[in-house]
Design a protein that fits this description.
β3 and β4 form a beta hairpin. The radius of gyration is 19 Å and the shape is globular. The model has no long low-confidence stretch (mean pLDDT 90). It has ten helices and twelve strands. The chain is an alpha/beta fold. α2 crosses α3 and α7 runs parallel beside α8.
Length: 320
């Protein structure tokens, strides 16, 4: 097991491993395990063909620190309430599974912070070992909302990933998550149909906005239009709270979400909760998709009433 663990810069600030000025503080500690990834995801800085620095993931820098120091500062931050959860971001690389399992076990020996992992295990035995070691949620980075987009930006087997997700959700109900990225070339209809299937399987579904990063294959692609992302956020919130299904929604011929199909949607969404970071509990990922002072795709905190009203207006739904 390596003696170093890469830590997101915001997490390093919360753990007091580095002096970091933050406009929003992460409530989950994000740690990276593994070397440069063997996969070729066109949007990812850790992909094997990426020219981005090895310390980058999305637009965040992940400096390395001594493993023992990271474990004990994480335990101290959890005991004082500065961190509510930990999450291991695991690359597909040689030795990443035993490293992940060992780090999880080491953390659990010193504190009981809930731990998640974004990881693609090879078989159900690896799933079981992680959950036996105390893993709270296992996240699948499916990312693409359709097989067509999956083949374009990720490669590999769409069918295999879905079979693994379904089998894991059946064996470990309530403990499996999936991540979807808006803006990879899917229609809004495709995104919401896939989200509905994942929710029906019992998975926690987190939304990301595609973020172009220098050194990746998709560095020149634009991020999603804000109105499209807001519509997906609003519909997702209604769906995961079992207040609506995709069959309730109206779409344009090209797949844009046009109407939610509920006369009370404005009241249901008025709090702004739909526009906060989504995914596992206590995961707020501040500025993972954003730059301070720029467009806020995922708010890492509760919205003010003014912000919530603006976000609702940005959806540009047709009013029936």
């Amino acid at each position: 097991m390596t003696d170093l663990v890469r830590v997101s810069l915001g997490t390093a600030g919360v753990l007091r491993l580095a002096d970091v000025r933050m406009d929003a503080v992460p409530t989950t500690a994000y740690l990276m395990v593994g070397e440069r990834c063997a996969m070729r995801c066109a949007f990812c800085t850790q992909a094997r063909d990426s020219q981005a620095p090895t310390q980058a993931l999305s637009r965040i820098t992940w400096p390395p620190f001594a493993r023992e120091q990271v474990v004990w500062t994480l335990a101290e931050a959890f005991s004082r309430g500065r961190i509510r959860r930990g999450c291991l971001q695991v690359t597909v690389s040689e030795g990443s599974f035993p490293q992940t399992l060992a780090l999880l076990q080491e953390i659990k020996r010193v504190c009981q912070v809930p731990m998640d992992a974004s990881f693609l295990p090879q078989d159900m035995g690896q799933f079981g070992a992680l959950f036996d070691a105390g893993l709270d949620h296992l996240g699948f980075g499916i990312d693409a909302a359709s097989e067509r987009v999956f083949r374009q930006v990720k490669g590999g087997s769409w069918r295999r990933v879905w079979e693994l997700m379904e089998a894991t959700a059946c064996r470990f109900p309530g403990q499996v998550a999936a991540h979807l990225i808006v803006g990879l070339g899917e229609s809004e209809r495709e995104m919401l149909q896939t989200l509905q299937v994942l929710h029906d399987l019992g998975l926690v579904v987190g939304l990301f906005a595609f973020t172009p990063v220098q050194g990746t294959f998709l560095a020149d692609r634009l991020p999603p239009e804000l109105d499209a992302y807001r519509r997906i956020q609003a519909a997702r919130w209604l769906m995961v709270h079992d207040l609506a299904r995709t069959t309730d929604f109206t779409f344009t011929p090209d797949g844009q979400l046009e109407c939610l199909g509920r006369p009370d949607w404005w009241e249901l969404l008025a709090s702004g909760e739909a526009f906060r970071t989504s995914g596992c509990p206590d995961c707020n990922r501040p500025f993972y998709n954003e730059r301070p002072g720029g467009v806020m795709y995922n708010y890492p905190r509760p919205l003010t009433s003014e912000e919530a009203a603006v976000a609702l207006g940005q959806c540009k739904f047709r009013e029936d």
